Amino acid sequence: MLWIAPCGLNNCHAAVYKNKIGTFIDYSLLWIFKNNEDMSLFKTLDTKPGIKNDIPQESEAERVKCVVIGSGPAGYTAAIYAARANLKPLLFKGIQPGGQLTTTTEVENYPGYPDGITGPKMMEDLEKQAARFGTDIRWGIATGVDFSKPPYRVVIDEKQVVEADTVIIATGATAQYLGLETEDKYKGSGVSACATCDGFFYRGKDVAVVGGGDTACEEALYLAGMCRKVYLIVRKNFLRASVIMQQRVHDAHNIEVLFERNTRELRGDQVVEEVVLIRRKGQPDESEEIIKIDGFFLAIGHTPNSEIFKPYLETDETGYIKTIPGTSKTNLPGVFACGDVQDKVYRQAVTAAGSGCQAAIDAERYLGHLGG
């Protein structure tokens, strides 16, 4: 079933159509959903209860063509491309300006830096590049949104309201940690949540990986290819990983799985030198053991920073925003997602930057299609 309704943006009209999958609204005359295959990615839009998403009623909204939420590699790259396309983007840095890379001491796997670069310095350079082309960069955290109709409304710091024709979400994902005081102490000095990013620095050394799922096994196997010894610390007495991943870990000669261990603390003089474990915690034979290591890798998952968008955007069971494969398009025309908030597979700075480029180009083409 198909009918036409006004969309409220540039006097255009939206195509509203319904099939066995659900009801979809396309504000760009069927530009977003080209076929049922694309449509099947998303379910019928429903406002989900239980999420605080208040919009200040008395605030005068600032109107922009494009707002970018987040300032990691994805957000800054999106801003660079959007600014060069004359979208005059407004970027809010978010809760962790610069993203997860600001906690990384050395970045050696990003193209163009033969001698490597620190994470904070890379983010500083990206910010300067975005500002050079005219991006309006501001401090601020998105605390609520109203995506019920365009122009879309974003609340900053619970008080300022921005209305945007397009929204690029680049809020990233937060690595899950154990919550130990010493984790914070040694972040960037032996503690990491990304083996692919930091494993190279531990060539020929002894490291530990915490976790029992597929991700932990993948990280352990990756590190086993360059490290002398890898300890896989598992809280339970079994691995949750797939059978094939368990077999690969079992077959690796330099991986030792330590079942029924809880991490108590990390120790070392300025850098991690050892980990203190509790074996069979809470049992009569509970005991403490100390293992000498040079690196401590967390592989217990990431939490995408997508909570405020869930009433309007389709997410997977973990909270990653769903996008049409090969694009940054969400289930809402004019709303795009890039970087780790929609990528649970790669989670690299270079892939985040690439998806930021996609988001800006998708936003520019969307506005061009509407005559904006």
Question: How would you describe the overall organization of this protein?
Answer:
By secondary structure, the chain is α/β, with parallel strands linked by helices. The chain has eight helices and 20 strands. Strands 4, 5, 6, 7, 8, 9 and 20 form a seven-stranded mixed beta sheet that branches. Strands 11-18-12-13-14 form a five-stranded parallel beta sheet. A hairpin with a 6-residue loop joins strand 1 and strand 2. The longest helix has 22 residues.
Q: Estimate percent helicity.
A: 10-25%
As for the CATH topology of the largest domain, it is: FAD/NAD(P)-binding domain
Task: Return the CATH architecture of the largest domain.
Answer: 3-Layer(bba) Sandwich
> CATH superfamily of the largest domain, called what?
FAD/NAD(P)-binding domain
Strand content: 25-35%
**What is the averaged pLDDT score?**
86
Unreliable segments of 5+ consecutive residues:
1-37, 47-51
**Molecular shape:** elongated
Structural class designation: alpha/beta
For the record, give the distance between the C-alpha atoms at the N and C termini, rounded to a whole number: 28 Å
Radius of gyration, in Å, reads 23 Å
Major β-sheet profile = 7 strands, mixed
| Count of alpha/pi helices | 8
